[in-house]
Each structure stands twice: as structure tokens, then as C-alpha cells.
Amino acid sequence: MRFERKDLLDLRSLSAEEINLILNTAASFREVLERPIKKVPTLRGKTIANLFFEPSTRTRLSFELSAKRLNADIVNFSSSTSSVLKGESLLDTARNIVAMKVDALVVRHSSPGVSHFLAQKLPVSIINAGDGAHEHPTQGLLDLYSIRERKGNIANLNVAIIGDIAHSRVARSDIWGLNKMGARVRVCGPPTLIPKDIEKLGVELTYSIEEALLDCDVVIMLRIQRERQKVSLVPSLQEYRDFFSLNREKLKLAKPDVLIMHPGPVNRGVEIPAKIADSRQSIILNQVTNGIAVRMAVLYLLLVHSSR
């Protein structure tokens, strides 16, 4: 099977076969990360530009390292020092960067749909690194990879996603990906942080963390994204901790081999206490490592393996 796409914009439009192709390719690149010399010449001669219009640590560094591990050249764009501040449009900025003969743009932006817009206008590959509260497809893929790596399979697993669902692009990508791979997904959070009609995405909704954790194989904790809220949507952090923070007593409701995940950044003591975040059940740091392998796979499939 060859990858038929020019861009990676979301998980909603990918088939289970396409997701499996990415995950299987990532497994090959994961082995590279364990070598003394963590490089392969796969993308030598290719140039990738990171266009980040929002703050990022893990995702931007992960894409940068992924490109370097594949021997590609990488350039980083910062909106705070760019001509965007002088009034240049997003599209003109992107067109000028493409005119410098780059092969792919990795784009993060606060507005949903920006990556889709650029993909329609530009001839190079566009990779969505997060667009507002819409989707974050490579995070969804690395979560799927991390689950499959530990559990052997994703089908028929009970997965709980707990926290600020309404403002989480990770939650949406995880929901689309997990459903396509045959998992059973529950979402849980305060009513003010749950999108209307979330059940239409094929998930089970509960406002009780105890119900969400019952017989759970995987729990994905999310932080409250206060930077996306125009007004406070929870009475207080203390009340949120009392009802929706993970603790040892609640975790007993899950299966003994439950995996604990978090896309980061982790607000320790709010959605998850430090002892659980650092426990043997936690694979949070494994997610970060796997993110490099997954993004290597995406870059390779778009720039080398694609039949487009």
C-alpha cells in the first residue's frame, strides 16, 4: 500500500488502513531512535519549514528532530519576529516560504482550518501540527502508536478521555483515530467543558470520572486549556480537582494494567498528581519519544513513499 495523500490534515479523513500504514512505518523508525547514531539518509536533499503561530515546545522540537533524524534540512519560522507583524497575510507568508524551495510546511495555528486552507493553495505537503481546537493529527497518531506498542492491539480496548474535551484538539484526533481502530471511547469532564452533541462522534459520555474509569484499559488525561476560554468555565481549580482529578482510589476502578497518558503539558496536582504521572503505569514520556518516530513516518510517507 502506498500513501495516496499530499497532506496530513486530520485523522477524520484517514482510513484504518492508512492509519495502520503510518503506525507500521513508525515502528520501523522507532528502532532507529535506539541506535548509537540516530540518523538515516531517507530525506537527504529535502527541506521542511516549521510555521508555528502558537507557542509550542514538544511538537515543534519533535518535528525538528524528526526531520534531522531523516537527514532533511529544517527551518523554523516564528510569528513574533516575522513580517506577519507588519501586516503580511498568512497566505503570502506561506507562499514566500514555499518560493524558497521547501518541500513541506508543518503548520500550527490558533484558527481551525488554516492547514486545510493552505493545502488547497500551495503545491507542497502541509502537515497540521494543531489548528485551534479542531485537530492535532500527529498527536493522535502517536497516542495510537503508544497504545498499540504496549497493548499489542487497539481494537476492543476501553479508553477514557478525561478533562477539557471542548477545547482539546488532541481529544478530537484521539476520538477519530480510536474509533477507526475499533476501540470503545468514553469521554468525561464538567458539563461546561463537554461539546454539545459529542456522542455523535461515536463516544459514550459521562460526567462521573468513576464511571469513565470502570474497567478502563487506557486513560488519557487532559489539562484545562484556560488560554482558549474567554471566561472561566469551572468554579475553581480545587473543585475541578475534587471531581475530575485522577487519584489512586479512583484508579482502582480501572483494569490493573491500565495505561495512563497525557499529551502535555501536564499541570501536576490539577488533572493528575505527580506520583501517578511518574508511576510505572504512566507512559507520558514514552509518548514523547514515540512522537519522533511517528513524525518521521509522516514525513517519509508524504515526501518519499507517496504515490501522488
What can you tell me about this protein's structure?
The protein is α/β, with parallel strands linked by helices. Helices cover 38% and strands 15% of the residues. It has helices at residues 16-32, 58-69, 90-98, 114-121, 137-151, 169-180, 209-213, 237-244, 248-251, 274-277, 284-305; strands at 47-52, 73-78, 104-109, 125-131, 158-162, 184-188, 204-206, 218-221, 259-261. The strands form 2 sheets. Strands 7-6-5-8-9 form a 5-stranded parallel sheet. Strands 2-1-3-4 form a 4-stranded parallel sheet, sandwiched between helices. The chain is globular.
In short:
The chain is an alpha/beta fold. The protein has helices at residues 16-32, 58-69, 90-98, 114-121, 137-151, 169-180, 209-213, 237-244, 248-251, 274-277, 284-305; strands at 47-52, 73-78, 104-109, 125-131, 158-162, 184-188, 204-206, 218-221, 259-261.
